């Protein structure tokens, strides 16, 4: 088992001098590509203020734009277009990237098509007019759940 240790502090109040204390107010980008082939990811949370029933400070993290790639199991999969799609919450759009022309269809959770748009390269699907909820975007054989 290979272990990749990455310490990212949301807040660091370990020093006695308050001038050395830090509070992270931005994203911490962590490149996991040096791990190579990975079967699973495991995250732990610790606090500088442990308590009897757990940490006395909030523990949380966000995982955004995680891309999972799998090796193709057949020749047909190897020639399938490479497609990526993710919801950009700040802009209110779904960003879609494809190495070939593909139709991207956004479905409501009930399976009803909401919008279909041809994608050739990089494009966005504006979701600002749609209500909050769970959607699925399908681009060829690629599918991903979008939570707005």
Uncertain runs are none
What number is the mean pLDDT?
Answer: 78
Q: Report the CATH C-level class of one domain.
A: Mainly Beta
Classify the fold: give the CATH topology of one domain. Immunoglobulin-like
Order of helices and strands: EEEEHEEEEE
Give the N-terminus to C-terminus distance in angstroms.
37 Å
Helix fraction by DSSP (H/I, runs of at least 4): under 10%
Shape: elongated
Helices, by number, come to 1
Q: Which architecture name of one domain does CATH use?
A: Sandwich
- Content-based structural category: mainly beta
Rg, please?
20 Å
Largest sheet: 5 strands, antiparallel
What does this structure look like?
The protein is elongated. It has a domain at 81-147: Immunoglobulin-like, CATH 2.60.40.3080. 3% of the residues lie in helices and 38% in strands. Strands 5, 6, 7, 8 and 9 form a 5-stranded antiparallel beta sheet that branches. Strands 1-2 form a two-stranded antiparallel sheet. The longest helix is centred in the middle third of the chain and has 4 residues, at 75-78. By secondary structure, it is mainly β.
Secondary structure elements and pairings:
Blueprint: E1 11-12, E2 22-23, E3 50-51, E4 54-55, H1 75-78, E5 83-88, E6 93-108, E7 113-126, E8 134-139, E9 142-147
Antiparallel strand pairs: 1-2, 3-4, 5-6, 6-7, 6-8, 8-9
Give structural attributes:
148 residues, mainly beta, Immunoglobulin-like, five-stranded antiparallel β-sheet, two-stranded antiparallel sheet, 1 helix, 38% strand
How would you summarize what this structure contains?
The protein is mainly beta and 148 residues long.
């Amino acid at each position: 088992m290979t272990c990749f240790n990455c310490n990212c502090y949301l807040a660091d109040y370990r020093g006695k001098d308050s001038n050395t204390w830090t509070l992270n107010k931005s994203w911490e980008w962590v490149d996991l590509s040096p791990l190579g082939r990975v079967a699973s990811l495991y995250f732990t949370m610790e606090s500088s203020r442990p308590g009897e029933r757990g940490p006395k400070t909030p523990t949380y993290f966000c995982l955004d734009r995680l891309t999972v790639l799998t090796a193709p199991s057949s020749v047909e999969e190897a020639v399938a277009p490479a497609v990526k799609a993710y919801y950009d919450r700040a802009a209110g759009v779904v960003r879609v990237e494809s190495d070939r022309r593909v139709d991207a269809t956004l479905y409501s959770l009930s399976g009803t098509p909401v919008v279909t748009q041809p994608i050739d390269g990089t494009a966005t699907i504006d979701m600002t007019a749609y209500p909050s909820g769970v959607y699925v975007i399908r681009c060829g054989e690629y599918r991903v759940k979008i939570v707005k």
